[in-house]
Design a protein that fits this description.
InterPro entries: Ig-like_dom_sf, Ig-like_fold, Ig_V-set. By secondary structure, the protein is mainly beta. Strand 7 and strand 8 form a beta hairpin.
Length: 130
């Protein structure tokens, strides 16, 4: 095999295994992910500490609507609209998105509610996929 072709194949395998980490527990976090890679977003310390939560992607254009990505109650995940290429780990509050595309870029908001359903807080993060 031509050495240049071999090197190209190794680089392609490495680029598909790229996983980046972002701490989204601080409001206004800026997160970055590689196109085709994986991003691990730390949304909270532990989902069991939060009675109810929603994680949503804000509409980026006038013809789009806000999309609720995750909905959970304590340690139970009630829905994940990206379940075909993502996983949420309630024990450590991490949401991983695999096979990132440019459409995953945007502003996301975590809304936190008390056991009675009253909103007690929120924080946002900006994800940029390049």
């Amino acid at each position: 095999m031509n050495p240049a072709v071999g090197l190209l194949m190794v680089l392609l395998r490495v680029s598909h295994a790229v996983e980046t980490y972002c701490d989204g527990r601080q409001d206004g976090a800026q997160c970055y992910g590689a196109l085709g890679g994986t991003v691990a977003l730390q949304l909270m310390n532990n989902a069991s500490e939060i009675p109810r939560y929603n994680w949503r992607k804000e509409a980026s254009m006038a013809n789009e609507s806000t999309q609720i990505i995750l909905r959970g109650k304590e340690n139970k995940l009630q829905s994940n609209t990206m379940s075909n290429r993502s996983v949420f780990i309630p024990g450590n509050g991490t949401f991983k998105i695999n096979n990132l595309s440019r459409t995953n870029s945007g502003k996301f908001t975590l809304e936190i509610f008390d056991s009675g359903g009253k909103k007690t807080g929120s924080r946002t993060l900006q994800l940029l996929v390049q």
